[in-house]
Amino acid sequence: MSYGGKHYHAFTYCGEYFLFDTFHYITLQVSEEFYSAFFKYVNDKDISIEEQKYFETLQQLQENGYFFAGKAFDIENDLTTKGIASLSFAPIYQCNFRCKYCFAEKRDSYNIQPRAFDKNTVIKTLDWFTQTAYPNSKGYRLDFVSGGEPLMNWQVVKDLVAYGREQEKLHNKKFRFTLTTNGVLLNDEVMEFCNKEMGNVVLSVDGRKEVHDYMRPFRKGAGSYDLIIPKFQKFAESRNQDKYYVRGTFTHHNLDFSKDVLHLADLGFKQISVEPVVAADTEEYAIREEDIPQIMEEYDALAKEMIAREKAGKGFNFFHFMIDLTGGPCVYKRLSGCGSGTEYLAVTPWGDFYPCHQFVGEEQFLMGNVDEGITHPEIRDKFGKCNVYTKEACKDCFARFYCSGGCAANAYHFQKDINGNYG
Question: Distance of alpha carbon 211 from its chain centroid, rounded?
Answer without folding.
Answer: 22
